[in-house]
Amino acid sequence: xxxxxxxxxxxxxxxxxxxxxxxxxxxxxxxxxxxxxxxxxxxxxxxxxxxxxxxxxxxxxxxxxxxxxxxxxxxxxxxxxxxxxxxxxxxxxxxxxxxxxxxxxxxxxxxxxxxxxxxxxxxxxxxxxxxxxxxxxxxxxxxxxxxxxxxxxxxxxxxxxxxxxxxxxxxxxxxxxxxxxxxxxxxxxxxxxxxxxxxxxxxxxxxxxxxxxxxxxxxxxxxxxxxxxxxxxxxxxxxxxxxxxxxxxxxxxxxxxxxxxxxxxxxxxxxxxxxxxxxxxxxxxxxxxxxxxxxxxxxxxxxxxxxxxxxxxxxxxxxxxxxxxxxxxxxxxxxxxxxxxxxxxxxxxxxxxxxxxxxxxxxxxxxxxxxxxxxxxxxxxxxxxxxxxxxxxxxxxxxxxxxxxxxxxxxxxxxxxxxxxxxxxxxxxxxxxxxxxxxxxxxxxxxxxxxxxxxxxxxxxxxxxxxxxxxxxxxxxxxxxxxxxxxxxxxxxxxxxxxxxxxxxxxxxxxxxxxxxxxxxxxxxxxxxxxxxxxxxxxxxxxxxxxxxxxxxxxxxxxxxxxxxxxxxxxxxxxxxxxxxxxxxxxxxxxxxxxxxxxxxx
Length: 602
Known about the structure:
Helix content is 48%, strand content 7%. The protein is flat and about 65 Å long. The strands form three sheets. Strands 1-8-7-6-9-10-11 form a seven-stranded mixed sheet, with helices on both faces. A two-stranded antiparallel ribbon has the order 2-3. Strands 4-5 form a two-stranded antiparallel ribbon. By secondary structure, the chain is of the alpha/beta class. Helix 22 runs antiparallel to helix 23. Among the domains are: 50-150 and 174-213, no CATH class; 343-418, no CATH class; 421-585, Rossmann fold.
């Protein structure tokens, strides 16, 4: 029988697609290259066609002073997709308040919203940093001389106090200009209220009373503000605010992982109401959180689960149980955390069932939740937990003291699950990760030799179902396979062999390129020193930016340092601790002298 014409066309199309895919896999993509700037003028690079290069140049210029930064930010923010990036750049500038005031004097479209977003970025960043410090199980680090290391993230002005703490060093009213609360742009108003909430700034309370146009986002923001400054709205007020905040659907439907990994801080109204309920701690409001768990916006569902864990009411267990079987991983992290905070034996079968479906990093989240209920880790996989439950389930009762002890001393990344490979001394538990490794000139000699040897062995030893990528950074940032992960070990080993070296240490540029990969949930970062020529010039900035990007998509960061100096080592430890990762320090000899060797031509 002769094949049909349609069959021939489909076969040829399939072959063509395979050839195109193979060609894509065989190459590497240069991103945010220093060579894009022939004269070293970063203002030219802001308009570069490559998004990563434009991002690097704009952020690099954001420290040049208020006037120059304002001009740069306005131009950069006008490009599609850059608005919240620009706001973040401004929030990192020491002169953020002065820049915001100048933006408020501008008549340009979006200028006032940009000012509000920058102030919100700064306030939210301060708040999240304080929350992490308050909730993190601190691992005590020591330098080479045995002195304790506990690096702080500077520049917080005393804002974002922990719950119950006295409000010292409250921000001045000028930090959040009153004019923003009467702005014609509702988005600017909503973000200004959120900034005041995260700052716990009571000085603007009267200005908020003058707001007459209450959009859904403004309704959510106003309730959140009241909860954050210590007020206790009555249940009918909270219910009315939730109704208003849910009046229209805004934001992302379905699952958009790259979209979640952004500096977008304009939180939808229902998510703000969920945060307010979590702050209030009122168990009678859990029914509203149940409704929020049905939202089409994953950010609302994440905030609802967080609030459930914060309140710790058994009334939330049904919603958490219903979400557990099918929820995507950014929500699964929070669902498991909430279940661990409300240990109940009835959740064990559903957790074991979900554990059986997990093949990568989130086995740890499920095992951690099971261990919180059991009071200790009983097994490492679904089969082991099922055997324990068959034996003990009929008579098992939660020991609340043991559960609390386990939860207070064991982090998610500390639980034991079968490994999928190794990278130096760190076990690989993710099946969707990227190596992000230093290929700077200081790595020449024994350091790059060690890296290439270990990475080759690591790629070769990965479990068959694991997908990965490789991003290496020096003065250039290169990604093995743009836009996705791959299981092609041959490609990975060839990329390790071909890895080039260049002057610079662009840590955050490399991390961000990996974090934007759609399937990725984990990074294995290796570096031999402080950032140089990077979009983020210091480790505290990198830690803060990573925290902001991971607000709704918490990518795990495992860190390996080749630098025994206490400063770099301590910051990489903290970066791992605060991002569900572990740290390893490797001594493979001193860094190479930089400057004597030019970058090899390709």
